[in-house]
Design a protein that fits this description.
heterodimer; A: alpha+beta; 6-stranded mixed sheet; 5-stranded antiparallel sheet; B: mainly alpha; globular
Chain lengths: 163, 193
């Protein structure tokens, strides 16, 4: 057994135990990956970063078939060029998923909802409204292009929220 | 995601693929790259002895530089090693309060690895024993083993090079550091059980 021998299973087992030790004693901070991705996206898009203005848990009356009030998360993001408000409620089409109702202060903007493994784009109507019907729970952020036809206009990116 | 030591492609190779795809226009692949490299970069950063917030800042700066300079990176496949080098330089720049980028030659050797008392108290008996053996190695070996422990066998040689270790210090042969750990553990009757 010398340092010139090939790495074998015993060495890999030793390293595996070392990995467990450090992962336990000095773990990667929770949310670090999401914070890094956000910083990168902002830079890569040359984006303007919206501020999270308010976040409220509202209790509203659901459809008449439900006796219990439905909890709806409502969040507002603000940037100099645009505001975005989103409400999150249970999806009607898929159990355990969510529906997002949004309102942007600009008509005909493109709103991209970016999750870990997917991105869904919606266009706002003449009143700035948009709906995304069926998304899983998880971290999400939005990228808003107020003038999709002009590449010189900087997109706006929101901080990540949990839906 | 925990690396699998027997995987044919190491985390560095997978990160290289993701970065190449990003360069070719697949924007979403950058997120995969971040997930792949974050544990290795975290431990390469923390191995320098800096605070958590300094380490986070250094990792973020390295990734932002990668995006910023993406087109000029000559070997996309070697992206993990590139990031490790930049993270180490950035840590030492922050620690010294320098306002300019520092060169690789200005990066000092990593200190002996430390765990704060609170972290030591949550270790199992066996982990405490392993910690004693690790602490008996040179600081350079401690740094190398800490970082490669979060990667896969095919990555060891490239990671060692990015940490400033000479060629042949590990992978595909065991090298002195891994051999010393093996000998140290093997001679401890308390470890064999």
């Amino acid at each position: 057994m010398s340092h010139n021998d090939a790495i074998d299973e015993r060495d890999l087992a030793n390293l595996g135990q070392l990995r467990d030790l450090y992962a336990h004693a000095d773990p990667v901070p929770a949310g670090l990956g999401e914070r890094l991705k956000f910083a990168i996206t902002v830079q890569a898009l040359h984006a303007e970063v919206a501020e999270l203005m308010e976040s409220a848990l509202l209790a509203t009356r659901g459809s008449e078939t439900r006796a219990q009030p439905t909890r709806i998360d409502s969040v507002t993001f603000s940037a100099p060029s645009v505001n975005l408000m989103v409400s999150v409620s249970p999806s009607e089409s898929t159990e355990g998923h969510v529906r997002i109702d949004g309102w942007v202060t600009r008509p005909e903007a493109l709103v991209e909802a970016v999750m870990e493994d997917r991105a869904v784009t919606a266009k706002t109507d003449a009143n700035g409204r948009f709906v995304i019907h069926d998304l899983p729970h998880g971290p999400i952020h939005f990228v808003i292009r107020v003038d999709p036809s002009d590449p010189k206009v900087r997109p706006v990116i929101t901080p990540t929220i949990e839906v | 995601m925990s690396p699998t030591p027997t995987a044919p492609d190491g985390v560095g190779t997978l990160a290289g693929h993701a970065f190449a795809a990003y360069l070719a226009g697949d924007r979403q692949r950058l997120s995969e790259l971040v997930d792949l490299v974050t544990p290795v970069l975290w431990h390469a950063a923390r191995a320098q002895g800096a605070s958590s917030s300094t380490c986070e800042d250094a990792i973020q700066t390295a990734l932002l530089q990668l995006v910023d300079r993406a087109e000029t990176i000559k070997e996309p496949a070697a992206v993990l090693g590139w990031l490790i080098v930049v993270v180490k330089r950035e840590i030492w720049r922050l620690v010294r309060g320098e306002r300019r980028e520092i060169g690789v030659e200005e990066v000092p050797e990593a200190p002996a690895q430390q765990l704060d008392p609170e972290s030591q108290s949550i270790l199992s008996e066996r982990q405490r024993l392993l910690w004693q053996h690790i602490s008996s190695l040179t600081p350079r070996c401690q740094e190398l083993l800490r970082v490669i422990a979060f990667a896969d066998k095919p990555d060891y040689a490239a990671i060692a090079a990015s940490l400033g270790m000479p060629i042949g210090s590990i992978g595909p042969t065991r090298g002195r550091c891994l051999n010393k750990l093996r000998v140290s553990l093997g001679s401890d009757p308390g470890w064999a059980v």
